[in-house]
Design a protein that fits this description.
Layout lengths: L10 H11 L14 H15 L4 E7 L2 E8 L1 E3 L4 E2 L6 E2 L4 H14 L25 H5 L18 H10 L14 H15 L3 H13 L19 E2 L4 E2 L23 E2 L1 H12 L6 H8 L3 E2 L7 E2 L4 E4 L5 E8 L4 E7 L4 E7 L5 H4 L1 H9 L1
Helix pairs in contact: 3-6, 3-7, 3-9
Amino acid sequence: MFLTMKTKLSWLTLLLFLGASSPDNADPTLGHEGPNRGKNLEQYLQSLEKKGFYGTILVSRNTEIIQQRTFGMRDRFKGLKNEDHTIFDIGSITKQFTATAILKLEMQGKLSVDHPISDYLSGVPEDKKNITLHQLLTYTAGLVDSVGSDYEEISVTDFLERVFSTELKSPIGQRFRYSNVGYSLLSIIIENVSGMGYEAFLRQELFRPAGMQSTGYVLPTWNRETIAKGYSKKKEHNKPNEEHWDKDGPFLNLKGNGGILSNALDLHKWHLALLQNRILDENAKKKLFYPHVPEDASGESFYAYGWVNMPFGPETTAIWHNGGNGIFFADFWRFDKDAIAVIVLTNKYRGGRDDIIAEKISTLIL
């Protein structure tokens, strides 16, 4: 499972683009301060439909859903359209749940993000024993990205042996280097420390308190008809949970770093739970969203814990993350200061055209 890194459009460039396509953009509002913001958003959503977007888009402000639209099909053969409750693979958005679970365990006094992984995993070799949980969370551990394909069958023992036998790609703690392996290691640590399965812990400590009924791997009582199939230009693909999984969800090349299933309504509930500190206290939430490390030398965006922290305009910060597997793609943007969320889920990924939808909508409504 990979993260499709956001195309870094500057705020000014994006405004110019939207201004060129929307003559009323000089006074954008959602109907609160003026007439044009809602009009521009509606025009943009209509353009997505005309251009063949598949999926769902949800926008909320101040706890209220102000727009939810669905597009395209979840099952072409059966003639089933995407709906508000359609379930999608949300890719690397999974990582924010893994990160939150680690912070929840820290709140419970069961671990510390500053402690080395050798406190929680056995058999850690000398060159990796001082890697901390913080470094796994921020991609600064120097680990490889992956040690196998998403649906490869692999045991915990074999996974750890593969990871521990790899050479570090950079010195521990010195640079940002994307690694799905790191988040899979965190999923094992969650199980070791909590004494529960990874998904079971998320369900008990995160999803249920947030009121999320339709998020997980295998524990929700899925109505199979609601789960979207994936589509590419000339092919229909399996539903995500029809791929080769273990009895409790994906094997470890995917578990903890990607592959969780959800819908836009549940992700909106997650947004509200974070806003209202129903999962993490204020101190833990600051760690979750803090701009810990720059993603690259430009310093235009920073990695937090399972989220990206990025300036968005002169006085606004976007907290976002996306993910996908080339078929499904998900993008989740939050603006705590304005209590705004923008959620985009698709089961027919169209490359760069889908990468920037959430960013464009965020600019329109801000």
